[in-house]
Every structure is written in structure tokens, then in C-alpha cells.
Specification:
CATH superfamily of the largest domain: P-loop containing nucleotide triphosphate hydrolases
Helix content: 40-55%
Number of helices: 20
Number of strands: 8
Structural class: alpha/beta
Strand order of the largest sheet: 5-6-7-4-8
Strand content: 5-15%
Number of domains: 4
Order of helices and strands: HHEEHHEHEHEHHEHEHEHHHHHHHHHH
Low-confidence stretches: 82-97
Oligomer: single chain
CATH class of the largest domain: Alpha Beta
Radius of gyration: 27 Å
Largest sheet: 5 strands, parallel
CATH topology of the largest domain: Rossmann fold
Mean pLDDT: 85
Length: 441
């Protein structure tokens, strides 16, 4: 079958992650002399595929069938049968405003159900759920900031999915700050700013703006967006913004605009903790139908931090390698993938830091973990606990167990070293030297 051959070629041409996300879900409805009709999950999925992959798909279809065919993406299996018929517009009551929503292509998997909640993001997730349901528990204006890959776009996509499912007549505009700026410039050039203002001031129930940090130094765009925010917020409309920094950290931003962005809830998404990373790895492995034992999941969770997209990349690579090995996944394969795909970022552990401190102070690990209270052992032990707390995600209790102590002893050691560092220049210099060596492990 033509589409089967096309898929086989695309599977070898595209990366496995791209193929699995954007090509595999497409189903062939009908093949005609001049066209091939593909069924996609929804119109947002179609829009993204059309923008990113349509030319590649059409070229591959020709390669598979030796005839140039137009690729038509459909969200309804009746579309292929009635393409030539003019679509009937949905009837609208005179009192209902026309829905002129404008959005980015939504990722079908970026929903609230697929979002992994932990301590690092629970406030942002709760606020997004509330605002998507017109619940004013967190207010009507929300600002989310985080570094890349921690879930800002996932949450904004989830809001749009929820809004279109629960309140399809909502006039929602979802843009990046760059898209907003480009649209404004086009309207200035064509002298149609009245329609631009009408769209965002009068024909908008909800506004999602991503990456507002990209407006740094763009004074005119800041003024225009600030005016839009002022109008919407005063009208009780919903606004969600995302950025890589908090409003007060942004440079090159007008103070009035900064104040407007801060008028509602400002929340940050932090890096997920170890437990959340573990659940993320488990979830991604399940989605990709990949069997990884608990030790493997734990290794990935410990060694892949920050950008959650790295987890997806690692899982895809492990699945590809496991297929070549007959479906088997072992720790050597996982370690290799972490080193090759993720970059091999070394995660500091209590054992690594303990070994370093023991060698630097010329004491044995056994003595350092013993019950001895000799000063020659007490100080290295306290320094090791201090550095373990600083450079690992392990809890006070976990650090205490590693040194045969309880969490209160670890807390005392941290306070002791902190005080000594502040009062004694030689201890401070010693700690600076040890900090450098730990970072180079």
C-alpha cells in the first residue's frame, strides 16, 4: 500500500521521536490519482504537520508511488468524500460573538492528564487548571517563569485544549511574543491597527502569550501589549504569560509593562525533584512501550536533570537500541545512552563527595563514618555533610545515614561549617578550594 511504503521510508528518514509524534498517528483514508488523504487527530495536529513536514511527506509519497500526489490532511473521514462541496458554516445566534480564535498548533499530548505534577510545579499547574475553567481562585492573570524544558508550553497547550473542549465559543488568542510583535508591525505597515486593536481588545476572552522575555528592548511592542493587558484585565478577561525570568528580573522592559505583568499571580516552575523525575521517566517509558526495570529508571532519573525533553530523547534512543538488541534493555545500554544522547552530565553523589573529602584530609572513609569525635575526623565529616547538602538533592536524613548519623547532626554540621566559614578566613579559603574540586568531579 502506498502509505505503508511512504511510512517505511519516513521512518528511516526522520528521527524516531519526530516520526512517532507526528507521522505514526496519521492514517490513510483514500488514495486518488492526484491526491492522498490522511486522517490526523485534530486540526491543530494537521496545522503543525502541514507547516513542518508536508513537503517531506509529498516528496516521499512520490518516491513510493512514482506519481506526484497532493497530500490532504483531514480531521474527519468524511472530508475526503466531500472536499469539493463548500463547507457549511455553523449557525450562530445574533447575540453570540463570532469566534475568531487564533492559536499556535497544539501538541496532542500536551494536556493536563499528561502533565507530571510535583512540588516544583504544583502551584503553576493548579493555577492553569483553575484559569482554564474560569475559576478565579488564583485570579484572572497568571505569569509563569522557568528555564527551558520544564513545562511552560505544556501547561499553556493544556489550557487551550481544556478551553476548546469545555468552552468552544471562547475567543482565545494564543501567540508567542514574537508573533504578537510581527502581527503588530504588519498592521502598522498596512495601516490596519484599528482591526488589530479590535481583535485583542474587543474580540478576545482569553490571551496566552509565550516568551515575553523576547520583547526586551522592543518599546513599541511593550506599549501595545501593555495596553492590551490593561484592557483585558480591567474587563475581567483571562491572561496567561510565560517567560524564562520573573518580571523583576527582565531587563530592557518598561516599568509600567513590568507592573502590569505582575498584577496577578507570578509563579515559577523549578527543576523536578528526584521523586518527580522518577515518575516522569516511568511515564515516558510507558508511553513508548519500553520496559525498564526500577534500577534503570532510577539511573535515568538521577542522571537526567533540568530539561524534561532530555528524558524523551533518552527514552527514544534506548528504545531504538533495544530493538536492535532483540528488545533487551540493560544498564550498560542505559549508561551509554545517558553519555551519548544526554551529554553525560555527571550527577554528584554522597559517595563521590565523601571519597574526595577523605582523600583531601587524608583520612579513611571508615574513620569518617565512625562514631569517633576526634577533631581530625569531626571537621572533615562536617565539611563532607555540608558539601553533600550543597551539591546533591539528597535529604538531611539520607546524608545522615551515609555517615551513620541522624538528620539533626547533619543540620548541626551545616550550621557549624557555615559559621566557621564566615568567621575564619583560612576555613573560607579551604572551602573555596574544596568547592572547586567538587565541581570538577
Amino acid at each position: 500500500m502506498l502509505w505503508d511504503k511512504t511510512q517505511d521510508i519516513l521512518k528511516d528518514t526522520l528521527s524516531s521521536s519526530v516520526y512517532n509524534l507526528w507521522i505514526e498517528p496519521l492514517k490513510c483514508l483514500e488514495v486518488r490519482d492526484d491526491s492522498i488523504y490522511l486522517l490526523s487527530p485534530d486540526r491543530y495536529f494537521s496545522a503543525y504537520v502541514a507547516q513542518k513536514f508536508l513537503s517531506v511527506i509529498e516528496a516521499t509519497v512520490k518516491e513510493s508511488g512514482s506519481v506526484q500526489r497532493r497530500v490532504v490532511l483531514c480531521e474527519d473521514d468524511r472530508a475526503a468524500k466531500s472536499e469539493s462541496a463548500a463547507p457549511k458554516a455553523q449557525l450562530r445566534l445574533p447575540t453570540v460573538p463570532q469566534n475568531n480564535s487564533s492559536i499556535r498548533a497544539l501538541h496532542p499530548r500536551y494536556t493536563f492528564n499528561e502533565f507530571m505534577v510535583g512540588e516544583s510545579n504544583i502551584l503553576a499547574e493548579s493555577a492553569c487548571k483553575a484559569i482554564s475553567m474560569h475559576d478565579d481562585s488564583f485570579g484572572s492573570c497568571l505569569y509563569i517563569n522557568s528555564t527551558t524544558g520544564l513545562g511552560k508550553s505544556h501547561l499553556t497547550h493544556a489550557i487551550a485544549h481544556r478551553v476548546f473542549k469545555e468552552s468552544p465559543m471562547t475567543r482565545l488568542h494564543y501567540v508567542t511574543a514574537q508573533q504578537f510583535a510581527a502581527e503588530m508591525v504588519r498592521n502598522i505597515q498596512t495601516k490596519t491597527m484599528d482591526s488589530f486593536k479590535q481583535k485583542y481588545h474587543d474580540q478576545c476572552d482569553m490571551l496566552l502569550v509565550e516568551d515575553v522575555h523576547s520583547l526586551t528592548g522592543k518599546k513599541k511592542t511593550q506599549e501595545e501589549l501593555n495596553e492590551v493587558l490593561d484592557c483585558l484585565i480591567k474587563s475581567g478577561k483571562r491572561v496567561v504569560m510565560t517567560s524564562n525570568q520573573t518580571p523583576r528580573e527582565l531587563v530592557g522592559i518598561d516599568n509600567d509593562f513590568r507592573s502590569r505583568m505582575s498584577s496577578g499571580l507570578v509563579t515559577s516552575i523549578k527543576e523536578p525533584d528526584a521523586a518527580t523525575r522518577f515518575r516522569i521517566v516511568e511515564k515516558k517509558a510507558t508511553l513508548h512501550q519500553l520496559g525498564i526495570d526500577e534500577d534503570g529508571v532510577d539511573y535515568l532519573a538521577q542522571h537526567i536533570r533540568g530539561d524534561v525533553r532530555k528524558v524523551e530523547s533518552a527514552i527514544v534512543a534506548i528504545r531504538a537500541k533495544s530493538r536492535l538488541m532483540g528488545g533487551q534493555v540493560d544498564m550498560d545500554m542505559i549508561r551509554q545512552v545517558v553519555a551519548e544522547v544526554v551529554g553525560g552530565d555527571k550527577v554528584l553523589t554522597i559517595a563521590m563527595i565523601s571519597d574526595l573529602i577523605a582523600s583531601q584530609f587524608k583520612v579513611s572513609l571508615g574513620d569518617m563514618k565512625s562514631k569517633s569525635r576526634k577533631k581530625s575526623l569531626t571537621f572533615p565529616r562536617q565539611v563532607a555533610m555540608f558539601l553533600c547538602r550543597k551539591y546533591t538533592d539528597d535529604s538531611l536524613a539520607e546524608i545522615g545515614r551515609a555517615f551513620n548519623r541522624d538528620h539533626s547532626t547533619v543540620l548541626h554540621s551545616i550550621k557549624k561549617v557555615t559559621t566557621m566559614t564566615a568567621r575564619d578566613a583560612s576555613v573560607n579559603a579551604q572551602l573555596e578550594l574544596l568547592n572547586g574540586k567538587v565541581k570538577n568531579l
